[in-house]
Amino acid sequence: MAIAFIGFGEAGQAFSGGAPARGYDHKTDVPALREAKLAEFAAAGVQACGSAAEALAGAGAVICVVTADQALEAARSCAPLLAPGALWFDMNSVAPETKRAAAAAIDAAGGCYVDTAVLSPVNPRRLAAPLLLSGPHAAAGEAALKAAGFTGTRVVEGPVGAASAIKMVRSVMVKGMEALAAECAIAAARAGVTDAVMGSLGGSFPGIDWPARTDYCLDRMMVHGLRRAAEMEEVVKTLEALGVEPVMTRGTVMWQRAIGERGLAPEPGLAAKVAAIDSNDKEQAA
């Protein structure tokens, strides 16, 4: 089965290599970004296409891995370009309502939409990353992914939105812990009590290396904060649809976006990361 990627960032590159594939990423249309993106396609052994139409022509399976805020638009714009019966794997972190709207566009055009939730960082697991699939085409989708080399798939009973609901509600905790870690670490550094705070956390929650865990959280936010903020906006929608006031999640959106917007390259070590963020804050304040 010919596989096409729509979007070719970290997730697309991690999921390539299981079968021959081609793909399209809008960054190839931006002169300043084109060469770097083409190099990523080449390094992954994926044929870079000049348009979504070229990438999708004849493809039996499409892996859509764009940013959360572009997931619905990607489905709507690509739907008319799909081969009849093509499987559309929406692996984007968006609310169940967003996935159902995307499914309506794909299915109306003759495609087969598969709600696909990625439950871990794509690296280093790559094709072994845990994936949940739901909707009427989930079983067919799982068979196609396994044939392409994916080993961590599991079908979730229920309609489109069932898999993404698990992902979204889980992200309240996972991405929320990142935001709390950042808030705690920055405050501890400014108060000059980092070692004492980390030591106290270790005593209260033994088994967790709090400096290492906090360092990892800041690393993820510095690199992926903007993408995570877009995902958490979808989590806000999910919680509101469930009648749950997203008080903590709105704070998570703020922290993820604030740190991601800094555009800082993570330096080794927790102290260096906090210092870089704090220094950036002071520069902006000045």
From TrEMBL:
<dbReference type="InterPro" id="IPR008927">
    <property type="entry name" value="6-PGluconate_DH-like_C_sf"/>
</dbReference>
<dbReference type="InterPro" id="IPR036291">
    <property type="entry name" value="NAD(P)-bd_dom_sf"/>
</dbReference>
<dbReference type="InterPro" id="IPR015814">
    <property type="entry name" value="Pgluconate_DH_NAD-bd_C"/>
</dbReference>
<dbReference type="InterPro" id="IPR013328">
    <property type="entry name" value="6PGD_dom2"/>
</dbReference>
<feature type="domain" description="Phosphogluconate dehydrogenase NAD-binding putative C-terminal">
    <location>
        <begin position="188"/>
        <end position="258"/>
    </location>
</feature>
<feature type="domain" description="6-phosphogluconate dehydrogenase NADP-binding">
    <location>
        <begin position="3"/>
        <end position="118"/>
    </location>
</feature>
<keyword id="KW-0560">Oxidoreductase</keyword>
<dbReference type="Pfam" id="PF03446">
    <property type="entry name" value="NAD_binding_2"/>
</dbReference>
<dbReference type="InterPro" id="IPR006115">
    <property type="entry name" value="6PGDH_NADP-bd"/>
</dbReference>
<dbReference type="Pfam" id="PF09130">
    <property type="entry name" value="DUF1932"/>
</dbReference>
<dbReference type="InterPro" id="IPR015815">
    <property type="entry name" value="HIBADH-related"/>
</dbReference>
<protein>
    <submittedName>
        <fullName>DUF1932 domain-containing protein</fullName>
    </submittedName>
</protein>
